[in-house]
Amino acid sequence: MRLDKFLKVSRLIKRREVAKEVIKRGDVLINQKSVKPSSEVKIGDIITLTLGQKIIEVKVVLFLENASSYEALKMYEVLYEDYIKKEVA
């Protein structure tokens, strides 16, 4: 499945166009490598997302063409989630 579609269907990112922009900016990695929106995602891949001040690392466990909000949660397993701490001068 294409990375941009996976992010949309899994509801990690709300819209596919937004997913494409975030990927092109370099804020999404697969197995610690820069990727394109058309990159193929495989079961077991580790996806790292930097969304604003939040970093999320998930493992792909399931593909669904369409998913309800409950089913979308089954598509990945959260490995790491944290906020980037800004230093105050």
How many domains? 1
Number of helices: 3
Strand content: 25-35%
Task: Summarize the helix and strand pattern as letters.
Answer: HHEEEEHE
Rg, Cα atoms, Å: 13 Å
Please characterize this protein's 3D structure:
This protein is α+β, with helices and mostly antiparallel strands. The chain has a single domain (3-83), classed as Structural Genomics Hypothetical 15.5 Kd Protein In mrcA-pckA Intergenic Region, Chain A, CATH 3.10.290.10. It contains three helices and five strands, in the order H-H-E-E-E-E-H-E. Strands 2-1-3-4-5 form a five-stranded antiparallel beta sheet. Strand 3 (46-51) and strand 4 (54-60) form a beta hairpin. The longest helix is centred in the first third of the chain and has 9 residues, at 16-24. It is globular and about 45 Å long. The model has no long low-confidence stretch (mean pLDDT 94).
